[in-house]
From TrEMBL:
<dbReference type="InterPro" id="IPR041664">
    <property type="entry name" value="AAA_16"/>
</dbReference>
<dbReference type="InterPro" id="IPR027417">
    <property type="entry name" value="P-loop_NTPase"/>
</dbReference>
<feature type="domain" description="Orc1-like AAA ATPase">
    <location>
        <begin position="24"/>
        <end position="174"/>
    </location>
</feature>
<protein>
    <recommendedName>
        <fullName>Orc1-like AAA ATPase domain-containing protein</fullName>
    </recommendedName>
</protein>
<dbReference type="Pfam" id="PF13191">
    <property type="entry name" value="AAA_16"/>
</dbReference>
Amino acid sequence: MSEPQEQMSSIAYRGSTSLLQGQRFYCREWALDKLRHCLDAHSVSGQAPGVLVTGGAGAGKTALCTEVVWPTSQAGLAAGLSQRCLAFHFCHREDQRSTVPWKFVLSLVEQLRASPLLPPGYEEILKRPSVSSALEPLNCQKDPEDTFKRAVLEPLLDLPPPAHTLMVVVDALDVHCVPGERVGKSGSIAELLATNQHLLPSWLLLVCSIRRQNKDVCKMFS
């Protein structure tokens, strides 16, 4: 990977972390159990490609997503969800860079590359000319959806299924997202995921959180 691309990937990865990491989690233990049930039942035919966590401001959506990725409570540790989290991304209202689609895509690629949960072969797929060219900085910025397909979706579909269903967690998906307003082919992270959710492998569950009042974005994942 070229040095500029490594720098962009590093920036995208740092921007995907949660501001609540390490804080105490309480009062939503039941949600962890429900999410675990959805994860275990996902392989059953006919299940939806993801789970949408909705609620008003301050309802605890980000806290829940943070506990899934970095558990601190007894319930969170017992649920074992972090051991099945393949990748994550946290959008921040105060940092618009965290909502940029190409940064999101590069963040996913870097996490998948480093994840011990994937079967062997992902790194080799990234070396294919058609994939490596899509990961070039300018190409990724111009068409993040193409890079998402070539470097994330298609490689995951080519890999043998892991032993257990895994998940990707994306928090505050509606931040800075105005459906219908697109700049070039970038759009938003929400549009990127909604448009391509049908291409997710059957062993991967997409877990997203959205404010309930943002009905337009909620409808994108109905």
